[in-house]
Amino acid sequence: MGAGKVANITMEQKYLLFTSPEQVDVCVRRLPEPGRNEVLVKTNRSAISSGTESLIFRGLFPADEERDSSIASLQGSFEYPFQYGYCTVGTISKAGDPKNQDWVGRRVFAFQPHASCFLSNIEDLIPLPDDLSDDLAIFLPNMETAVNLLMDGAPLTGERVAVIGLGVIGMLTTSILSQFPLDLLTGVDILPTRRDKVREMLNSIGLSPEEALFKRPKQGYDLIYELSGSPMGLNLALELAGFESRIVIGSWYGRKGVNLNLGGKFHRSRMKLISSQVSTIPSNLTGRWTKERRFSVAFQHLMRLQPSRWITHRYSLDQAKEAYFQLVSHPEDMLQIVFTY
Fold it and tell me: What is the pTM of this model?
């Protein structure tokens, strides 16, 4: 939608609140008028980040850790009650300053918690091109994460690469890796449905953990991405690795205990464990790369891959409790869950 007037402007916000482990409420409040540099955004879609939000729903987060100090709408600790979510697409319906009236009607992406509308500073919004649908745009932060994982892992031509965990981020990462001239690319997951998806949609190898160990290359994998969210996935990565292999860890384990088997070949094999997090640019690239440049690459991959076909479930915000219970109870059926407004 281009710039212009938006009908049915409302300042009443319906928002999702995490109130205790496995409890969410949908609340209503009236927002103030947008300030001078603010706009009111009506939400079209918001996506559940399955790995992170399943931990949050179950209360498996470290309470003394900040939600995300790099995102204005997510600052503060994990202390009940709190809002969460960071994959929101909406349309600007009102501007606080007449000088910003040309923003009204524009579709934007925002790192905002799940809510029917919200106020935001203009500089915190990412304008969306007309040819990028709402369903595609909600994958933007996870695609940016996948691009960052590739930056941290720096795959080389002819390498043997494994991706452990084939949720949305694992599938997106595998998609980008499939464009590289690798010798071998293997996706690993405990869920048969996800192994089937990586075979069908990305034409890549999909194996169970047991199969991956049995079919492990003689010298091990050169590069392994641990994206399962499970500490068992990290131990599997150690088993699949070879001498001086690189293991890039994109999982957030929350308060899950991580007992690593470091008494075997790990020490003598000089393996490298690399923490990857999308809030920053890898220090060796900051001379040339910015978040804006990384976003532009993520946009290109979204248009190429069209991951909106991975949306498996759509819920209204009033059905949030059902959505989260389904997510943690039946992960084999869920890939991408979207709230519609």
Answer: 0.90
